[in-house]
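Everyone, study these two lines:
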Amino acid sequence: MPAQPPSTLPPFDPSDPLGLDDLLTDEDRAVRGTVRRWAADRVLPHIADWYERGELPGIRELARELGSLGALGMSLTGYGCAGASAVQYGLACLELEAADSGIRSLVSVQGSLAMYAIWRFGSKEQKQEWLPRMAAGEVIGCFGLTEPDHGSDPAGMRTHARKDGTDWVLTGRKMWITNGSVAGVAVVWARTDDGIRGFVVPTDTPGFSAPEITRKWSLRASVTSELVLDEVRLPADAVLPEVTGLRGPLHCLSHARYGIVWGAMGAARSCFEAALEYAGTREQFGKPIGGFQLTQAKLADMAVELHKGILLAHHLGRRLDAGKLRPEQISFGKLNNVREAIEICRTARTILGANGISLEYPVMRHATNLESVLTYEGTVEMHQLVLGKALTGLDAFR
């Protein structure tokens, strides 16, 4: 095919150097625009202050606003959920995390973990009771899997549930639980005589408490808690009936990890944009630093990894929409995109110099947040071993 004359080519867009917008539908762009405008109006003017104070004030109001946008349980169907495509949900995650990882975490835990567990494995009654209110943001949910001594190895969990007549009685502790102390319902995974089971636990049940974890240097604008279950008595119908074993929580985690594949690129985009703008205005040795070769090399490398990551996320989203996305492929995306996002943030910090550590710019905030994102929903090492097993057929976890 002959080359197109240069005059007929579209102009180069520094914000979309690969022309990835061509892959999106009008509806995709509308979803992205709605979430971007909400984040610009409700989060960006305040996030530096929230981060510095280590709190997320008005979280219940924010949840209701996100519910009105259709962002909670966004890709689920029925029960007041938006029924959006996987790509549209990913675009929303990218825009939310471009504002702050804590905001995306709020949405991800609500929709991809707590709501998804009930939607996928719950009874009809459980779905009807909880999902419409959670989709509207009237009830915030949390997901209790990780324990103080069992993170990457959830099979070793100590939280247990015993039968007492027709009731279940739960005892144990969960750690690093997003939304925990503001949640109205918790999905808690516990060991039983029949294997690991999930339980829908109203947080006003006697014996349930959720002390907030403070003194964090990452995800500071996010509610993180411990869950304490001290002989929490639940009726027989509190158990999720459609799953037994680790397959249940791991299936939920795959759903959440997919959102992270997109979200990490939002944090990276925010840092890249800050660095690009700064390089065009900051002068040294008589000209903008963007005019020096070393700075341009950094910007070029950042742009390459950023947009490769977005392209990867889009590809995985299309596979998920087609029902073809495997857990190993989600591990591929989570491993690559979070790792590259952190490197983009660190490189952006070098371009901003001393200003890069100031909350006047988003770079250090995103970099510290991504240190948590790198670890949760599967550490680097766990995803490397998932891929290693898939590539070799040999299990190296133990």
Remarks:
- The two ends are 53 Å apart (CA to CA).
- The mean pLDDT is 96.
- The CA atoms of residues 317 and 323 lie 10 Å apart.
